[in-house]
């Protein structure tokens, strides 16, 4: 869809609900794992907006993450809040479009430099001590070198503040000209976070669908406020699209919880490592039944049957996924990152 001949229509706000629901801000392992990338991206945005000295840190401070995660936990655990069920269980809204949490890192270097020569030869380490120390510390591996523009493409399994890392490199390594995240193109879905003057945590969970490569035709946003003492207020909805409002699509049903405010009891099946590179290993695999791997849009990428001890994922694109299977007459989804 071309922006030049489309007109954005977004006019509908849902009714504002003022009822406060006392909730629980304790963060479950399921929530922390499923929303790690989202939260760290929101932290980097927040530190930048506030011009915080912590924005210069490559490792994202846990204290910033905890504040955002605890507010999400309050929304997730709010008893009887159907809108929370929509966000976390049915539509599984994630911060994909514009999230700076990328495994890829682009580093532009001077033509003919020692770094350029090393990367052109396929070597991750370059002989430049400061650069090599950071590449080793954060487990970067060279994926490719684009000689026409003198750019190295490097990947790591860690979520980092790549803006801070780029700043460190450009200041301390003469041959490094710039660095930036290798953004995912076409990812749909957004989460916004802010604080008001009373210290209430404000969240917008925005589902996007249809023409996602060019900016998504349609969106539907759920808005929440979480007070300092973990009271949750649903603030309403907003929806729209380029060609008018359309009904919500079919749910993804990743089921972070089994019901509103009720966490799924951990199953015996365990997944490791997480994030995964090539092989996803399974502990205590069921002896029968089927499984499938789905992405954030509910699309199935792989499927098979139990028992299973490992799944080869080398051709799976990087991103957030769920291993979905039947367990004791219910559907269970285990989150992991590639």
State the gist of this model.
The protein is α+β, with helices and mostly antiparallel strands. It folds into 3 domains: 8-99 and 186-263, no CATH class; 104-181; 270-337, Immunoglobulin-like (Sandwich). It is built from 7 helices and 19 strands.
Your description of this structure?
The structure is a single chain. The protein is of the alpha+beta class and 338 residues long. It folds into 3 domains: 8-99 and 186-263, no CATH class; 104-181; 270-337, Immunoglobulin-like (Sandwich), CATH 2.60.40. Helices cover 21% and strands 33% of the residues. The chain is built from 7 helices and 19 strands. The chain has helices at residues 29-34, 36-49, 62-77, 82-90, 114-120, 129-137, 162-172, and strands at 9-13, 20-22, 104-109, 141-146, 151-155, 176-181, 190-195, 201-209, 218-226, 231-241, 257-259, 262-263, 270-272, 279-283, 290-295, 300-305, 310-312, 320-327, 330-337. Strands 1, 2, 7, 8, 9 and 10 form a 6-stranded antiparallel β-sheet that branches. It has a 4-stranded antiparallel β-sheet with strand order 4-5-3-6, with helices on one face. Strands 16-15-18-19 form a 4-stranded antiparallel β-sheet. The two termini are 29 Å apart.
3D shape: globular
The quaternary organization reads as: single chain
Enumerate the spans where pLDDT stays under 50 for 5 or more consecutive residues. Answer: 1-18, 259-267
Number of helical runs? 7
Taking the alpha carbons of the first and last residues, their distance comes to 29 Å
Structural class: alpha+beta
Compute the average pLDDT. 84
Order of helices and strands: EEHHHHEHHEEHEEEEEEEEEEEEEE
